[in-house]
Amino acid sequence: MSADGFAFPHRAVTWNADGFLAYRVKYFEILAGGKALHFKTSPKGPEYFIATPYGAYVGLRFYPFSK
C-alpha cells in the first residue's frame, strides 16, 4: 500500500492511494488491487470542483527469466 497527499486549510487538496495483493506461481504473478485519487480546488477560487475517482484492477505478470 502507498498513499500521499498535499493540503493547506481552506485551500486546494490532492491525494492518491493505492494497494494491491499479489500471488506468484513459477513464472506468473496474479495481482488485484485498487486505486483512488482525490482532487479539490480552492473554495476561494471562481471555479470550485471536488472529485474522488476510484477503481479496482486485476493483472497478470509474466517473468520469463526468473527461477
Strand percentage: over 45%
Number of domains: 1
Mean pLDDT, all residues = 92
Between the first and last Cα atoms, what is the distance in angstroms? 26 Å
Continuous helix count? 0
Largest sheet: 5 strands, antiparallel
DSSP strand count: 5
Question: Which class best fits the helix and strand makeup?
Answer: mainly beta
Poorly predicted segments? none
Backbone CA Rg: 18 Å
Helix and strand element order: EEEEE
Net shape: rod-shaped
Helix content: under 10%
Detailed description of the structure:
The two termini are 26 Å apart. Strand 1 (2-7) and strand 2 (13-25) form a beta hairpin. This protein has one domain (19-67). The chain has strands spanning 2-7, 13-25, 28-40, 50-51, 54-62. The protein has 67 residues and is mostly beta strands. It is rod-shaped. Strands 1, 2, 3, 4 and 5 form a five-stranded antiparallel beta sheet that branches. It has no helices and five strands.
Layout of SSEs?
Elements: E1 2-7, E2 13-25, E3 28-40, E4 50-51, E5 54-62
Antiparallel strand pairs: 1-2, 2-3, 3-4, 3-5
Any key phrases for this structure?
5 strands, mainly beta, 0% helix, 67 residues
How would you summarize what this structure contains?
With 67 residues, the chain is mainly beta. It has one domain (19-67).
